[in-house]
Each structure stands twice: as C-alpha cells, then as structure tokens.
Design a protein that fits this description.
The chain has helices spanning 14-27, 50-60, 75-78, and strands at 35-37, 65-68, 71-74. It has a 3-stranded mixed sheet with strand order 1-2-3. The chain is an alpha+beta fold and 90 residues long. Strand 1, helix 2 and strand 2 (65-68) form a beta-alpha-beta unit. The chain has one domain (14-80): Cytidine Deaminase, domain 2 (3-Layer(aba) Sandwich). The radius of gyration is 13 Å and the shape is globular. It contains 3 helices and 3 strands, in the order H-E-H-E-E-H.
Length: 90
C-alpha cells in the first residue's frame, strides 16, 4: 500500500482475499495498492478473477503491479480498457 502498510490475508479463495485486502485498505484510512500477488497453497502465482481484477484496478490503478503466471505486469496490461472511477463522469 502506498502509505507503507503491508496487508496479508489467508483465505480459502483469491476472491475473499482481494475483497478482504481492499476492505482492510479502506478501514485503515485508504491509500492505493502498489503491488499484489495471489498464490495457491504451494506459493505459485494465481491469476485473480475478473471481479478481483476490477477491485485491484479501482484501488491500485493502471500502474499497480500484479505478479502473474507470466511474471510481474502492470494492471494496464492485465486489464486493458478497464472501467475506472474517471469513467463515472462520462
């Protein structure tokens, strides 16, 4: 998180992990996500589902880094043509 906090959560699914991480972000005063990795039980990267990618975009933006199965990628590559807060004013 851009204010220096590190969020870790152990949940059974990546969806609950990302949702919990975003809730924690807002509960601790906000900020932006800087980098995220979701892993399976063996520590291998998992690709977040579409809902989670949207939450990551909204709380990290296009420059937030996500570790994927193909390496670290900015959200602008993971979720091209994303809908974000700036689209609400259109």
């Amino acid at each position: 998180m851009d204010h220096g906090a590190i969020s870790t959560a152990l949940k059974s699914t990546p969806v609950s992990h990302v949702s919990g991480m975003v809730s924690s972000l807002h509960a601790t005063g906000g900020g932006r996500l800087v980098a995220v990795v979701c892993v399976d039980g063996h520590g291998h990267p998992l690709m977040p589902c579409g809902r989670c990618r949207q939450l990551l975009w909204e709380n990290g933006g296009p420059d937030m880094l996500l570790e994927t199965v193909r390496g670290v990628r900015p959200m602008s590559e993971v979720l091209p043509d994303a809908f974000g807060p700036e689209d609400l004013d259109r």
